[in-house]
Amino acid sequence: MPASAAHAPTVVIENFYPCIEGGRHPIKRVVGEPLDLWCDIFMDGHVVMSAVVKWRAAGSRRWFESPMHPVENDRWQGRCSFDSMGRWEYAVEAWADTFRGWKKTFAIRVQAGDPDVPVEALEGARLLKDGAQRARAAGAAAVAAQLEDVAELLAQLPPQEVMDVLLSDDLQSLMDKYSDRSLSTTSSPLKVIVERERARFSAWYEFFPRSAEGRLDKHSTFRDCLPRLDDAQAMGFDTIYFPPIHPIGMTARKGKNNTLIAYADDVGSPWAIGGEAGGHRDVEPKLGTVEDFVWLVGEANRRGLEIALDFAINCSPDHPYVKDHPDWFYQRPDGSIRYAENPPKKYQDIYPINFHCDDWKNLWRELIDVVLFWVDKGVKTFRVDNPHTKPVSFWEELISTVHRKHPDVIFLAEAFTKPKMMQALGKVGFTQSYTYFTWREDKAGLTEYASELMQGEMRWYYRGNFWPNTPDIHPYYLQNAPASMFRLRAALAATLSSTWGMYAGYELCENKPLPGKEEYLDSEKFQLSQRDYNEPGNIKGFIARLNSIRRDNPAMHLYDNLAFHGADHDQMMCYSKCTPDFSNRILCIVSLNGYDPVAGMVHLNLGALGLGYDQSYRVRDLMHGNVYEWWGASNYVSLNPHGTSLHIFQVEPA
């Protein structure tokens, strides 16, 4: 018991849910999103208890609160919500409710004709007068007068004549507002990160600004990027992600297809940051200036778009840090600096940072200041490169520091690594995270993985951002694949998760691989890319319709409302997303076969759709416009990759 406590704890409050590692890490919510919570509350004796959940912005003295309700076996449930971005905390306060307890036993005594009724009536009058005193002390004189009037009635009239008043909801509401909490117990607070809506619902489009015009003979600039922004906007994307825009080093510059020899016209990898033109606070001169970038951010914002910047803590051998702070890097016995490796990949053009060097405090402060520098330039979203190769404690410090000043900043973790590290990054504050979606191909794998992310414990702290491709990952099932495969993987990414993204060229069904690897031939990471963004066979219209459906249906904006349904065919997936009040119900049926037709029965959990098992309902195909009348849980569906390969149904009671 703390030395400052006014009294010993009177109530046991335990077993909070959700609760991440005993409260070590915060729950994630967005502004206005409710948090439903449970805990066990009990105490000695046979008393009637009351409890509230309380919440406040971190550092504030003002608490908000709402009543909790018992469910079963000492389990209580409550709800809170948060009206602004930032760090919040919540706690549960519980106490023996003397007035509720008295009222319960008094009604029984009156009904039984107990001879102690008169003295118990005086006890009730005292409790009411005490409540009046608390109300008057709080400045509620009118309420105090009402409670005193009831106390006088109880003291003067036969109990039977005032029972209706005593048992009224109005009286109980007044006493609840000014209840006696002098012996209450309050739990230790738990933490919440509250973010803006785009943290939970977004659609990302990645392109290299240097290839904005799709020309091999011209390095594009920031001023050349507007057509790409307009095209992405037309496809329904809201977040435009740029790989690193900083000066690219010359020493050990990589050539085309990651070769070790670079020629004069080779542009190098943007992730090899730093050169004569500067480091992480500067831009590659061939792209323009910092002022040009700020202009482009403004143009994006005017279109309702945000530009996400890649925060890659990589340094080329030419980075100013190498000269000014050689102790920030890994020194080898021969005096050279160790280059980066991610076996079997080697990055001779990149020096990794030693986060535990003797000067680590200044190093960490400098890297945090780099992020704040770009925030001041209008960047509110960062895709973080390989955060799993840096200390988790560093990211916790960086994100919390940035959020103290700028709670609207979003961080996406690009960590394709072991599950526990990916989870730890989510726990310490990363807003969104890349996932294994790209490598989940069959129904069982997709179902199990999506369930883990969106129905299990991870949903409280880890928002999976589903990408069918990236510049680093050209999955085997898309290599030399038809457009139908690109459509179905985009549909799965966009409908399973509330946040998804794709790398430029996907809409053109680019499918040529580097032989034997999950990589693109002539990778844009090392050279300019030639593209005709309107070439025949593109699926831009399909992507635009997909994003339009997502935007227009509130159920698609939620992350943790995914429910799976049965489908007889092993290459057909069936799942739904509904708003809590079932005002919007979306049912998705998607083929996993991009080559052959699939058909079979689907078996719906009608309760998950807010439907009765004996009613008919209408399913409206938002992709194709068809309407079907269905009845019961089981219905027949046929999908064809060369026609209707998926349904996104809006479900409506008939």
Provide keyphrases for this structure.
single chain; 654 residues; alpha/beta; 8-stranded parallel sheet; 8-stranded antiparallel sheet; 23% strand; globular
Q: Calculate the terminal CA-CA distance, rounded to whole Å.
A: 60 Å
Structural class: alpha/beta
Quick one: overall form?
globular
What characterizes the major β-sheet? 8 strands, parallel
Mean pLDDT: 96
Q: Low-confidence stretches at least 5 residues in length (pLDDT < 50)?
A: none
Question: What percentage of the residues does DSSP assign to strands (E)?
Answer: 15-25%
Q: Tell me the helix content.
A: 25-40%
Rounded to an integer in angstroms, the radius of gyration calculated over CA atoms is 30 Å
Biggest sheet, spatial arrangement of strands: 19-18-17-16-13-12-11-20
Q: What's the count of strands?
A: 28
Describe this structure in words.
With 654 residues, this protein is of the alpha/beta class. Helix content is 26%, strand content 23%. The chain is built from 14 helices and 28 strands. It has an eight-stranded parallel sheet with strand order 19-18-17-16-13-12-11-20. Strands 26-25-28-23-22-21-24-27 form an eight-stranded antiparallel sheet. Helix 2 packs antiparallel against helix 3 (141-156), helix 9 packs across helix 10 (392-405) and helix 13 runs parallel beside helix 14 (540-552). The chain is globular. The mean pLDDT is 96.
